[in-house]
């Protein structure tokens, strides 16, 4: 399931068998990351070392990808200013992603 390393070493293989090879640059909270065009955003961020995508409005605890199917809303981020689940959004060149709640911030 998801994206698997390809046996040919040329990129990643998606669930549908398509090999993703075109690398692109996108940003998360103004920090640049590299991903594969068409890769699931939550996976690309996780590969880049990002687990926490935001914080709980209730108690300030970190939130990130949980169900990976768009049901729980734990991975909700702003993609180009529009709220999207990171587990349902795909990476593209120049994509600008931000946390809805500032990470590491208090009031």
From TrEMBL:
| Naturally occurring in which organism (per UniProt) | Komagataeibacter xylinus (Gluconacetobacter xylinus)
Query: Can you name this protein?
Result: (2Fe-2S)-binding protein
**Domain of life per record:** Bacteria
| Phylogenetic placement of the source organism | Bacteria, Pseudomonadati, Pseudomonadota, Alphaproteobacteria, Acetobacterales
Pfam families linked: Fer2_4 (PF13510)
MF terms in GO: iron-sulfur cluster binding; oxidoreductase activity
Q: Which UniProt keywords apply?
A: Oxidoreductase
Family annotation (InterPro entries): 2Fe-2S-bd_N, 2Fe-2S_ferredoxin-like_sf
Q: Is Ribonucleoprotein among this UniProt entry's keywords?
A: no
Q: Does the keyword Lipoprotein apply?
A: no
